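>> received
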Amino acid sequence: MANLLKGFLDNLGKGVLNPKGNLGDFSHAARLYVDDSFRLAPKQKFLYHVVFHLNPAAVVSDPPLKNHQKELNMLVKIVDLPKYSIDMVTAQQYNKKRKIQTKISYDPVQIVFHDDNYGVTTALWETYYRYYYKDGQYGGTDVAGNPEASTKRAFNRAATYQGSLLNQKRFGLDADSVDPFFTSIQIYQLARKTYTCYTLVNPIIQQWQHDSLSNQESAPTANQMVVEYEAVFYSRGRVSANGSPQGFGEEHYDKTPSPNSLSGGGSTSLLGDGGVLSGLFGANDGPHTYIGSQLGAGRQGITLGSIIRTANRLKNAKNLSKEGLRQEGFNILTGAIGRIGGTADSSYGVPNTFIGRSASNIKSGANAVIKTIVRKR
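>> returned
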């Protein structure tokens, strides 16, 4: 009997003083990363958009880059965010050391492009090369398809001592390029329908590298460049169609509604995403509909989209069931109670512990919440 009482008291003491037992649950991580719509959750690396602002006078290439500039923004495979190096000196006065900043350096940023079949990213370098360096402007000025003709005039090695008439060609940086090729490069890091924008001021290409070719590999090719810049501007805002980031959500963007949204079919739930009542009382129409909703913003009256949503509401309403409504109400109540669980219970003072609350009681409460809805069915 003593051993039974001892075990009972030990278990009771552990339940109050050590509610997590020998293995803690994920409550701490959930409160940090999940609460407040994932406000403190880490950002994802694949959510970004890069915008290249080019000098209109310099965008001359084949294919014409100015007609594919928005596509160029979408062909960025990898991009580095800005990096900084700060030089410091150590000053010492009566053996007390102080760190003094003397200079800030903006470290180069690497950008890797897909080497697309049409040649948009290669055209970027071609345009840049021909804008700053006179050497690349002589190619193709003679008979097409004749490599000898394209090198005979400007690159005639025998013309070195042939007088000014045969040495009038200009080379290297002697291209009368005064205005910068890039007015800026903006890197947008996206998360939760918002962006953080890093604007590289006066960027200039320090290195460009075409990929290597091999008949032993099937991996896709890429173009990469290293960019130097003079400063960085920061800005933040909400993602919006026809706004910021520039060009995002326009060309090649999938604007078809998600099947989980009411516009794309919806679900046979009452209050969930894409449910029968979604969008009527401030609830979301469903996931992945932000850009599409912005594209239709400002339109008044009956639209094709509203007709489709109404039709899906009626269709899904016919498929609602009493058991489904009970389960939905049960999930809503248990979710609400779970959110309260982060604080001490007002009745018992034991954190994360719900004494005297059973699943049957919660289910009874859920039934009470939705009984008015199912009464007429």
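>> The longest strand covers residues 96-107.
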